[in-house]
Prior knowledge:
By secondary structure, the chain is an alpha/beta fold. The chain has one domain: TIM Barrel (Alpha-Beta Barrel). Helices cover 40% and strands 10% of the residues. Strands 4-5-6-7-8 form a five-stranded parallel beta sheet. A three-stranded parallel beta sheet has the order 1-2-3. Helix 3 packs parallel to helix 4 (105-117) and helix 4 runs parallel beside helix 5. The longest helix is centred in the first third of the chain and has 21 residues, at 69-89.
Amino acid sequence: MQGKIALEEHVAIEPTLSDSQVFGAHVWKDLEHRLVDVQDTRLREMDKHGVEMMILSLNAPAVQAIHDVKTAIAVARQANDVLADEVRKRPARFTAFAALPMQDPDAATAELTRCVKDLGMVGALVNGFSNIGTPDNVTYYDLPQYRPFWRAVEALDVPFYLHPRNPLPNWTKQYEGHNWLLGPNWAFSAETAVHAFRLIGSGLFDEFPKLKIVLGHLGEGIPVQLWRIDNRNAWMKAPHKYAAKKGVADYFRAHFHVTTSGNFHTPSLVNAMTEMGPDRVMFSVDWPFEDVGQAAQWFDTAEIGQADRDKIGRDNAIKLFKLKL
């Protein structure tokens, strides 16, 4: 399929580059090049495999792991200026998500507003929880201090991409002796799914009914669990015990979109399409940690209808991010 749009595609800047080495130390020479390159290798891969546009975003955990608030604010601004400069070189091929200093909700709101209104960015991508004040702090965005930020996201009418990061070392006792479960193998999805459930259960979407959240990796395992989560206590007629007014599946289907980033598996794709509808699923690669060719070859030949392929590969992203192609 020609004209695909990919939207979990990462770039690193000098202060954040080393954050990604742990995810590919054995291929670091190539991975490092792919992270800092935008207009060369990346573009050739796009041309070769029918990707018309990439939405660029900062690598992980990057800003979210900078516990000094002033530094986090400065690095986010630096990253966004770099991304905007790359987009200006080829606006027909690239756009970008804002990196945000969520350590300071007011600063995050101001930076998102700048990025959308002044730099033309199409939303934000944030790498999970933020460390605030100390490296051991974990702060999630369902907390009350983030309500004004979410109000601004809704008013700007842009999606918020909740991207994974690993749990902190002092939160990973269950992985001791099994570090192979960290990162994209398992911990990324487990951590991000819990964060998404926290947002849902907090009543956030009752307060801001137009919010739009994006999850990668075909929903971080959530779509396959929706029925079980909401049905668990049905026979006992037990009410849910969270602030939100409706079932988890109601919010997930109304407010969340998922991408194929790093999950090139047709049964998982079909499950997401079945649970959420094909209008809420979008193609992505997860470059440079995944291969454009592998993602494109799989998606172009996956056993789904052509109308759904067109939606997932291109049309849904154009609509959600208001792209002018």
